[in-house]
Amino acid sequence: MKRFLFILIIIIPLSLSLKSQSYNSYFNQFEIKGHYGITIPHHEQMKYLINSNVGILELNYSIKTDGSKPWHHTWRFPEMGVGYILGGLGNINVFGFSQSAFWFFGVPIVETDNFLFKYRLGGGIAFLSDKYDYRSNYYNVAIGSHLNAHLHFSLLCDYKPFDIPLYLTGGFAYNHFSNGAVETPNLGLNQVSVTMGVKYLYSLYNYSLPKNQSQYMYNSELELSAYYAAATKENSTY
């Protein structure tokens, strides 16, 4: 899991190049959302450190795919985007607050002209304001560095109540922060939250749900891929 976090960081720059197709470049989505939730005390040492719930602000920009590529149909016309979050971590005096820039990929589960149920997967790089220090912050056994990997998962519903491209959006979100034990201690931080906000779809044209084409098939020829990953780990700090 910890090695995967740093593999993710290597992949992120490649994933941020969002290619606009000839049609969907007009379908730009802007979101602002608020979160309210908790930091999960997943280790015994953390039960006494978490003393408050967390509030999070989230800003997103994404592009809605239009069906001009075969993979759009395979993934049911997904969205690709980038986001920014700013929020608390459960104890402002020990953990401080978090900021993160991340990419995400959203896949519809159910979609109609005015309703969308989807999931999002994403990841990025987070800056956490307070880290472990053996003199001034020795209670912080969760985070050993300011820079950390950020993993994101959410289940969301978008609903358009009026005949304008403004959607109400809400759901459940999970965020994980860790540095992969590059610097210890590194128990990591896990958050679950309820989220609500609004989404505006900016377009020169009225958006309509593309029709899935069953004839889109992938080439059955054999494909070979090679991957390389490296990781490092600090043995102990305390």
Q: How is this structure best described in words?
A:
By secondary structure, the protein is mainly beta. The chain has one domain (2-16, 29-202): Beta Barrel (Porin). The protein is 8% helix and 43% strand. It is built from two helices and eight strands; from the N terminus they run αββαββββββ. The protein has helices at 2-15, 70-74; strands at residues 28-39, 54-64, 79-88, 97-111, 115-128, 147-159, 166-178, 189-202. It has an eight-stranded antiparallel barrel with strand order 1-2-3-4-5-6-7-8. The longest helix is centred in the first third of the chain and has 14 residues, at 2-15. It is globular and about 60 Å long.
| Count of strand segments | 8
How many structural domains in the coordinates?
1
Ranges where pLDDT stays below 50 over 5 or more residues in a row are: 12-25
Through-space gap between termini: 22 Å
Q: Which sequence of SSEs, written as H and E, runs from N to C?
A: HEEHEEEEEE
Mean pLDDT: 86
Question: So, CATH architecture?
Answer: Beta Barrel
CATH class: Mainly Beta
Helix percent reads under 10%
**Class inferred from helices and paired strands:** mainly beta
In terms of DSSP E residues, the strand content is: 35-45%
Give me the number of helical elements.
Answer: 2
Q: Which fold name is given in CATH as the topology?
A: Porin
How does the major sheet shape up?
8 strands, antiparallel, barrel
Sequence of strands across the biggest β-sheet:
1-2-3-4-5-6-7-8
Quaternary form: single chain
- Anisotropy-based shape: globular
**C-alpha Rg (nearest Å):** 20 Å
